[in-house]
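re: ur question from yesterday

yeah so i grabbed the chain u mentioned. its 183 aa long if i counted rite. heres the sequnce exactly as i have it in my notes:
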Amino acid sequence: MKTIFSNAKLVVVLCLFTTTTVLAQEAKQETKEKKYDQGFRLGFAINGGLPTKDPYDYNLGADVRIQYDLSTRYSLTLTTGFSNFFVSGKDNDLGYIPVKGGFKAFVLKDKLYLLGEVGAAFAVTNDYDKTSFLISPGIGYATDALDISLRYEHYSDFPILENDIPGTGLGQIALRLAYGFRL
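ran it thru and got these structure tokens back, copy pasting raw so excuse formatting
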């Protein structure tokens, strides 16, 4: 009886050892298959925003972003497009071309990310043609094809009205909806 019990123990140990070895080999192959390729992505987006200062009512625009993936967690971005701050009444709207470079870090399951961009906004309206420093931190969620993000943007030199006194330093909270793909 002791020999049968000892032989049974030996069979169980051998089964566990071979199963563990096979599973470890499968895990190694799976890791090799999931090896990450660095590369470029291109995205096209529409944007909408709510300015934080007068006289602007809302912002609409479109952009294109090229993204270089350094790894599954980190990317570099370059974004440009056209946006317009709309003003009700007789005042002129403020149209501009933003050019921003940034860094994107995925913080949760390669989907949720933080993004920081910095650059310039080139005003292109008839009455105002100055360039403003632009800073834009944000948070977003991305899949293989879709990207939605919420960001704050600050334009240091764009004109504002604060208590009917002219000044500079316009901010906005903006939403970006994008479609992207790997190049």
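noticed a couple things. Helices lie at 2-33. also Residues 11-24, 29-33 have pLDDT under 50 and may be disordered.
anyway ttyl
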